[in-house]
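Notes to self after the call with IL:
- keep both proteins in one doc
- input above output, always
- annotate only the second one for now

Protein 1:
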Amino acid sequence: MINEAIQQQINKGEMLPLMEEFYTIQGEGFHTGKAAYFIRIGGCDVGCHWCDVKESWNAKLHPPTNTDTIVENAKKYANTVVVTGGEPLMWSLDYITTKLQSLNLKTHIETSGAYPLSGKWNWICLSPKKTKLPLNEIYNEAHELKVIISNNHDFKFAEEQAAKVNTNCELYLQPEWSKREKMTPLIVEFVMKNPHWKISLQTHKYLNIP
């Protein structure tokens, strides 16, 4: 059980259920190839069956960590910090992003958009899921829409989601890793017919880095 004092800090974002943090190369989407410090926060109820970090789903498995400590660790490395999960917007991210930006660090988030947007962001990657759709408020804020393609119907879902984002939002289709051999050729064909989309690959997996 978490005591009341710690729970209050969690509610304020002064503590977060940290699963892991690491310095690596961004492997997906618009910022592929850039060095970034990743902060993975535990907790997610979106429930993607193909999720490759299901151990992040149960926030209780990841002890509340002092956010100031997380920020101190981040500032030792890259000038870009990516907050991911799990579903990071289950938690208040105003405190951590204010601290990071005060150090002139760029703040990026990867989210399903299923929870209210908090935090100050230089880049918002919206990756919507059918199991729990984004809230309407995030569509106009997203800089990047990244839709995971694991079957043919996902192309229709992708276009439905693209119709909701702002006109400057970058659009990406990414093959679900376990079906990449089957779906990648279909994505290539789709993008060639619909050039407003781009292809995102999980290049970090091809490079065998975290």
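Protein 2 (the one to annotate):
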Amino acid sequence: MSDMTLLRIGIAVAMSLLLGAIIFFGRSRKDGQGRRVPRESARDAADRAEPSLGEQLADSWGDAEVEQEELPLATGAPQSELGRRPGEQFDRIISLYVAAKAGNKLRGSDIVVAAEKAGLTFGYMDVFHRLVDGRPEAGPIFSVANIIKPGSFDMARIAEVETPAIAFFLTLPAPLPALNAWETMEPAAQRMADLLDGVVLDEERSALGRQRIQHIRDELRAYDRQNAAPPLGKTSRW
């Protein structure tokens, strides 16, 4: 087995463990984690299916807190397809977090109200999604999960839910251009933080400042340019 094959297998296994940038949230920067997912080749992305939320948030804020706060998934009810991505492949994830202030927790019932006010819909995988107006079948612009495993919100016990933070994740390609999707997610995170008396953090658990926002915008502009369809009448020499 070649080194390249081993590398691809390693990437696929690693990415299957956690959903997007949530995997980096509770880990030390000394280990080189808590960073954005690097771009991969088109072949690598095609070989990798989008990981499910499932039980993949165990390390979000530390095992002790997760074990204390974990709530079981509701069983027996059919899962909603609203907010499901039409395709399983993705090549990048952008994440944000809304965290409770020191000594506080975000309460489930407050999260539901804030999500509704921010234009989110509860659906697929028992998490919240921001859908395209008039085109819900296009999939989510972004989604919002609990950082406590299994990541979902049990509506049957939502009044009992308490969590230190919720995770916003934008999976690319999205049903909108990447920059437009970001311009939808970031204000929604700010809105929910205001409603929940929380703070917005970037993927490295730092306060989301203007410089970081501008850097993300520049990256997503570049992503859109690289993934734009060629003008009509022009074809690649290849």
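Annotation: The domain at 3-226 is CATH 3.30.1400.10 (Cell Division Protein Zipa; Chain: A,). The chain has six helices and eight strands.
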